[in-house]
Amino acid sequence: MKPFDVYTLWPVELVHGQGCTVWDAERREYLDFYGGHGVISVGHAHPVYVEAVQRQVAKLGFYSNSVINSLQDELAERLGRVSGYEDYALFLSNSGAEANENALKLASFHTGRRRVLALHGAFHGRTSGAVAATDNPAIASPYNAVHEVTFVPLDDLGSAARELTTQQYAAVIVEGIQGVAGVYEPSSEFLAGVQRAARANGTVFISDEIQSGYGRTGRFFAHQYGGVRPDIITTAKGMGNGFPIGGTLISPEFKPVKGMLGTTFGGNHLACAAACAVLAIIEREGLVAAAATRGERLFAALNGMAACYPDVIADVRGRGLMVGIELTARGIPVRAALLSEERIFTGSSGSNVIRLLPPLTVSDAEVDMFLNKFERLSRRVD
Predict the structure, then answer these.
(1) Helix or strand run (H / E) with residue 247
(2) Degrees (nearest 5) of the Cα angle 34, 184, 193?
(3) How far is 240 from 271, CA to CA, in rounded Å?
(4) Per DSSP, what are the bridge partners of residue 24?
(5) What is the distance of C-alpha 125 from the center of its chain?
(6) In angstroms, rounded to a whole number, what is the distance separating the alpha carbons of residues 160 and 248?
(7) In this structure, is the dihedral angle defined by the CA atoms of residues 196, 126, 242 and 13, taken in order, positive or negative?
(8) Residue 349 in contact with residue 181, Cβ under 8 Å?
(9) pTM recorded for the entire structure
(10) How many other CB atoms are found less than 10 A from the CB of residue 168?
(11) Which of 153-162, 235-244, 372-381 shows the lowest per-residue confidence on average (mean pLDDT)?
């Protein structure tokens, strides 16, 4: 037997990591400016994280949700306090897709409705309901086509409001920043208008913060820049720093019913210990504010490069440490050169956007190292 071959792989096997640095099997060193799709929030092998996971697995790695697990209470309390959503409830799962599945299911239970309003360019996951709300026909099987989802353009408040006035939608789901679509941020006016229209028509407003949450943008959740307060918030990726965990934050309006939601592995002891350690590190090291500061440094320099190399860089978008560098040509050769020649891991977003999602622990020196190497490459491409 062998792995099901569905991934395009770089010819690198990573075997070790520390902070924002990773090493391959040949002991070559790389700067990690992608964090495995933005999962590595507090750096590779952070000692506080490692100690917490080791301590917990030596005690009890798993038991089901049929018993009391005080680590779930600790995680919910910490997350509520750090995020500013102390009055919300937390349902734990294994991934961002599951967090979104549960959010959509709760909205349907709550409203008794079936339809969902989503945005063009959206990416909400690869499970059935999540992929139905994802604007990518390439990953939607015929089975997914049974779902009732309408897509409207990002920042087209008129279209969104017109749809919501039909009063047929269970939920409207909006990413804090559209990561897969090209790192596009909804405007504050759009978020406020969608929230207003949703509330006027009994529609649940869901904010998908799977990629843009957990301090990455310089606020704990990206939607907080828009001054809105969603009915449900979903999170994952940076929540466990590599340990699989997802969370659905639920406003007090929703009343739980026994058996409404369920999971075998979600919220297990080891996952909660990892997630608690992540929040402890974020608080102790001030990583939300650090993401804002390092982001300002990145954006200032990248915008300067865009002015110097307009034939290479078309635009720079995002917030904090969620950055999209739109190139004038295809991005794959640039990413390949960054990896093979400059030893830097980056991501992509569409065919011509370089996506940066470094750990929140990235230092000024590491930011400068990336900028120097990226500018050197830009000069050569230009």
Answers:
(1) strand 246-250
(2) 140
(3) 7
(4) 14
(5) 11
(6) 24
(7) negative
(8) yes
(9) 0.97
(10) 16
(11) 372-381
